[in-house]
Design goal:
The complex is a heterodimer of chains A (about 400) and B (about 400).
Chain A lengths: L7 H17 L2 H8 L7 H9 L18 H14 L5 H13 L4 H11 L5 E4 L2 E2 L5 E2 L2 E6 L4 E12 L6 E8 L2 E8 L8 E3 L8 E10 L5 E4 H40 L1 E2 L2 E2 L4 H29 L5 H27 L10 H11 L6 H13 L1 H8 L9
Parallel strand pairs in A: 1-6
Antiparallel strand pairs in A: 2-3, 4-5, 5-9, 6-7, 7-10, 8-9, 11-12
Helix pairs in contact in A: 1-4, 4-7, 5-6, 5-7, 7-8, 7-9, 7-10, 8-9, 9-10, 9-11
Chain B lengths: L6 H14 L4 H10 L4 H9 L18 H30 L1 H6 L2 H13 L4 E4 L15 E5 L2 E12 L6 E7 L13 E7 L5 E5 L10 E12 L3 E2 L5 H37 L1 E2 L2 E2 L4 H29 L5 H25 L11 H10 L7 H12 L7
Parallel strand pairs in B: 1-4
Antiparallel strand pairs in B: 2-3, 3-7, 4-5, 5-8, 6-7, 9-10
The chains are: A alpha+beta (about 400), B alpha+beta (about 400).
Chain lengths: ~400, ~400
């Protein structure tokens, strides 16, 4: 395990992202954009695209900046810090999928416009189920006289599906996993918005009923698809973790600031140990989450052998920590924290929702247990299936 | 609703507290260190007539209920005697329950008055290495041979076996595979622990060292039929009767340890000065102790309700289990915080909280683990599928 140490360019990237989000994605802007038709600030989205945020790790020959996942992680963390609404995480996953298959038809059709922000991507990934195993909710089945592939299945809680122009769908096919890029104009793609308390993210349900696959949708098949799905799941888990690391850091800052300013019984409430210690505990939560997320980022950026393990550890650790830190921050703010005017609830609600997307915290815990005990590899090998091994 | 103890119950509580005050922390510290049975304490309790608290009057006891028994053991533990004191008398106080309810008159006449006088020490032999909490899997076997049985097998975690004359022994008389139901075919005896046929080996352990915990190797132990409690094959049911009161007693003992630990901690926090003021002025120290108090008080209420239900002849499984769970937890966490409050001194034997801590930890394991209590509540109270 390596410790993340940023180069001067990476530090500069973080500063630029933070400056821009502080200016354009403060709490007022978050409230405003969360309530718009599409649920995010489209001007900010275009700015982000212009600054090259979407292609940070895409090779230069494909139109990106040729960096690593580390750069992407910097952006995702800062977005979490501001609880910025918008399809940033799913889009980053869809871009990664296209970039992994640069010669495929979908990459040819979508990659450029996705990098420029004109087209938005979303992903439908397999689920991590309660016992830590992977299950594909979407199946690709051959049917009809020509044995055409059809996508069938029902998925819940897909982030930002409603604003996507293209959806990267991982399916369990007749010969193992396969990945398709389904254009949003496809008639059978009808996402249904499931409103949640969190106004900074939108979750959708998707019912695919015998959606006929066009050949030009195929992004990957066979071994290549298995590897791609693995990598997308690691990135999804780590992406949620990074959001939590950013958000947890921010709510702790807010709590500490309040504890220093607010006076009761003639002194700042932070002088009371019960409050001070709560701040310290929340800080510790945020720090341990950061360490776990850093480990996952370094594994993914360096294609290390423990990507599955660390991404799941980071996922549950950071999502738990974010929710706990936000809960502590609320307690420290007292009645003020309960008001609608005060901004803390924006983070608290996002933190709660983070625990439930791309697999629950408990499912990722179970996955970590499976990997640590070796069960994951054994079962996978027994099934003649190398998906989701810890390597 | 009436939360008050009766006048008699208050008297019991006060008298016991007065009696056991003589045995101070120094006494228990030395007994624990020397792995020495607290004979003087036992003697004093017996002479006070307390051992017969729940034994029927016709056998020399007072015929009182589990409420009085829990008050007694709570005070005993709270005196600073902790589990060393409680375990020394625990089985005499309520452990004879299966004998009282199901034993023959002859067996009762032969044994109960001697329990009351303190002359007869007994231990309880149920657990086996191969069975753990899955009691019906015990294999110690009693084979009928004329007017007696011949017993062979192994027992483990038998408290006070070293000091006991007799054992309340659970055996199989029909093998599990051959029994109609897995709970059939178990038979209970109250018989002599004949050292010629039972090898008793104390287990080295973390605490409660004044009362031994033992492994028993039983080799051709001959048990006369008269020593059988009730009918052959019905032993498991007889034990079931005693499980809820057993949990309540343990709960009371855990509560007592938590109380004494908390008292010590509050006193130390008020007296000890660091950075020019009593350490108890720090919220980081005061709040965990206040929290421990709230938890002990809440746990006590459930315990009182449980004993009230049992003594009134009402179902009490839910409350007995909840009381054990909450009291064990509250007692341990009070002891843990007391140790923390004492800082480095908490780790020294001299301040006694380390002893409370070690003993309080036991209550989360014995007589059933906290997890098994949750199993009970989950499946029997919430109606969820059995998870084990």
């Amino acid at each position: 395990m390596q410790i993340v140490s940023l180069t001067s360019e990476q530090r500069m990237l973080r500063e630029v992202v933070r400056e821009m989000l502080d200016a354009d994605s403060g709490p007022d802007a978050v409230r405003r954009s969360g309530g718009t038709e599409h649920g995010f600030d489209e001007a900010l989205w275009r700015k982000a695209a212009d600054l090259g945020w979407f292609g940070l790790e895409v090779p230069e020959e494909s139109g990106g900046a040729g960096g690593t996942y580390l750069e992407t992680s910097i952006v995702l963390r800062e977005i979490g810090r501001c609880a910025t609404p918008g399809p940033y995480l799913p889009h980053s996953l869809a871009v990664a999928a296209m970039a992994a298959a640069p010669d495929s038809a979908p990459a040819g059709r979508w990659l450029d416009t996705m990098l420029s922000g004109e087209a938005i991507g979303a992903v439908v990934l397999p689920t991590v189920i309660a016992d830590g195993r992977t299950r594909y909710p979407v199946r690709a089945v051959e049917s009809g006289p020509d044995a055409v592939l059809h996508l069938t299945g029902c998925v819940a809680d897909v982030p930002d599906l409603g604003v996507a122009d293209v959806v990267v769908v991982a399916a369990d096919g007749p010969d193992g996993p396969c990945v398709f890029a389904v254009p949003a104009e496809e008639a059978s793609l009808q996402p249904e918005w499931n409103p949640t308390h969190d106004r900074t993210r939108r979750l959708y349900r998707l019912d695919l009923d015998r959606c006929a696959v066009a050949e030009q949708w195929r992004l990957a098949a066979g071994e290549e698809a298995a590897r791609l799905v693995d990598s997308l799941m690691w990135r999804a888990a780590t992406g949620i973790a990074l959001d939590g690391v950013g958000g947890a850091g921010r709510v702790v800052e807010m709590a500490v600031e309040h504890a220093k300013e607010r006076e009761q019984f003639g002194r700042p409430i932070g002088a009371f140990q019960a409050v001070k210690h709560m701040c310290a505990d929340a800080f510790l939560e945020a720090e341990t989450a950061r360490v776990a997320a850093d480990a996952a980022v370094m594994e993914i950026a360096g294609t290390g052998p423990r990507r599955a393990y660390w991404s799941s550890v980071a996922r549950f650790r950071a999502a738990d920590a974010y929710a706990r830190a936000a809960g502590a921050a609320l307690q420290i703010h007292g009645g003020i924290g309960m008001t609608w005017e005060f901004d803390l609830h924006l983070w608290l609600k996002r933190a709660k929702l983070n625990r439930a997307i791309f697999g629950s915290c408990d499912a990722h815990r179970a996955r970590v247990a499976r990997i640590a005990s070796g069960a994951h590899e054994l079962v996978a090998a027994g099934e003649g299936d190398r998906r989701w091994t810890s390597r | 609703m009436d939360f008050a103890l009766t006048e008699d119950q208050e008297t019991i509580r006060r008298s016991v507290a007065d009696l056991v005050r003589r045995f101070d922390d120094h006494y228990w510290r030395e007994k624990d260190r020397g792995h020495e049975f607290p004979a003087e304490f036992y003697e004093a309790i017996a002479r006070g007539g307390w051992l017969g608290l729940t034994i029927p009057e016709e056998y020399g006891g007072h015929g009182l209920g589990i409420t009085e028994a829990t008050l007694l053991l709570e005070e005993v533990a709270r005196s600073g005697g902790g589990m060393n004191a409680a375990s020394a008398i625990h089985l005499s106080i309520f452990g004879m329950h299966p004998v009282v309810v199901h034993g023959s008159d002859e067996l009762k006449r032969r044994t109960l008055p001697r329990i009351v006088s303190g002359d007869l020490h007994v231990c309880f032999g149920v657990t086996e290495p191969g069975a753990g909490l899955d009691t019906t899997r015990i294999t110690t076997f009693a084979r009928r041979d004329g007017d007696s049985y011949v017993v062979n097998g192994r027992k483990v975690w038998i408290s006070k076996a070293l000091e006991s004359e007799k054992i309340l022994l659970l055996t199989r008389t029909t093998r599990r595979e051959e029994a109609a139901r897995r709970t059939d075919g178990l038979t209970l005896f109250l018989t002599d622990l004949d050292r010629a046929h039972v090898d008793i080996r104390p287990i080295r352990k973390m605490g409660r060292n004044a009362v031994s915990s033992n492994e028993l190797f039983i080799d051709d132990l001959r048990v006369p039929v008269e020593d059988r409690v009730g009918e052959e094959g019905r032993g498991f049911t007889y034990l079931l009767d005693g499980l809820n009161p057993e949990r309540m007693l343990i709960a009371a003992e855990a509560l007592g340890i938590g109380r004494v630990a908390l008292e010590k901690a509050a006193r130390y926090g008020t007296e000890r000065e660091v950075f020019d003021r009593p350490i108890g002025m720090n919220q980081g120290i005061q709040f965990p102790l206040a929290d421990a108090l709230a938890r002990l008080d809440a746990a006590e209420l459930v315990l009182r309700k449980a004993t009230w239900l049992y003594d009134g002849g009402r179902p009490c499984g839910r409350e007995a289990n909840t009381a054990k769970y909450l009291c064990a937890d509250a007692g341990f966490s009070a002891a843990d915080r007391a140790l923390q409050t004492h800082g480095g001194m908490g780790y020294a034997e001299e301040y006694d909280v380390a002893r409370y801590f070690r003993e309080a930890r036991l209550m989360k394991i014995a007589p059933v683990s906290q997890e098994m209590v949750l199993n009970y509540l989950g499946s029997h109270v919430l109606g969820m599928p059995r998870s084990y």
